Amino acid sequence: MLEIKNVWKTFNKGTVNEKQALCGVNLTLNDGDFCTVIGGNGAGKSTTLNAIAGVWPVDCGQILIDGKDISALPEHKRAPYLGRVFQDPMTGTVADMEIIENLAIAARRGKKRGLSWGVKADERFRYRQMLAEFDLGLEDRMSSKVGLLSGGQRQAITLLMATIKKPKLLLLDEHTAALDPKTAAKVLELSDKIIAENNLTALMVTHNMHDAITHGNRLIMMSDGKIILNISGEEKKNLTVEHLLEMFEKASGSKIENDRMLLSKDK
Ligand SMILES: Nc1ncnc2c1ncn2[C@@H]1O[C@H](COP(=O)(O)OP(=O)(O)OP(=O)(O)O)[C@@H](O)[C@H]1O
């Protein structure tokens, strides 16, 4: 489904700030794989997601979705394949618009404005049902402006917007990191549910080792722009934080230096 083949990315080439952020990344995800991505500070996790989304061109290598090479496509032409949720709850939604308007915009992504732009009763009913499943009371607030919602509620709406058109690939970039632990757990539960119910393929960057272990069927660990661990199947199911730390130290030859990751290891 997703194939990343020998992708390299250098920032600020030829300057004192030159940084080789991706060094020959290779990754294949099958349909329905839910892969968590963990690693130290500056390991290349967000850069990998940006490379897939086409935020900038990569130096070399290929990115394929369902066998189609999207490496040369600009960001807006990759958007139909992708759904993305960022860390900041403010980024995915339009604060001044109602919940229902935000959802309607997401559902019409890629379509030309026309007579069908108004929200019909059956569409309203569908959104109401989707929101009711979240169990956050949002189904009774469909006409509320999104700016009035809490960070967790807003992130739940962003998640729904990112998946409403069933993207080929869902990119979650530390999407619960700005939330309090209880809300983060709720948004993760919603993410699991949406991914499973729609059989989505997903990549989720997290600094929380416990979350990386307990969610998804795959786990990759990055260090210095490379994937140093790629775990799946029974090995993923039986993984513990201690084991993961040991494997990281063995594979990278160093101790983990990401404070946030270490802080989250006992949760
Ligand atoms: N647009 C950019 N311009 C210059 N350097 C960048 C850019 N984006 C990322 N980098 C650098 O590339 C390296 C990898 O960054 P990236 O954001 O992918 O790390 P990360 O694994 O997501 O880390 P963190 O957990 O700290 O967010 C870092 O050294 C970062 O400073």
Automatic annotation (TrEMBL):
Keywords: ATP-binding, Hydrolase, Nucleotide-binding. It comes from the Bacteria. GO terms for molecular function: ATP binding; ATP hydrolysis activity; transmembrane transporter activity. Residues 2-249 form the ABC transporter domain. Its EC number is 3.6.3.31. Pfam families: ABC_tran. The keyword DNA damage does not apply. GO terms for cellular component: plasma membrane. It is an enzyme of class 3 (hydrolase). PANTHER family: ABC TRANSPORTER DOMAIN-CONTAINING PROTEIN, IMPORT ATP-BINDING PROTEIN. This is Spermidine/putrescine import ATP-binding protein PotA. It comes from Ruminococcus bromii.
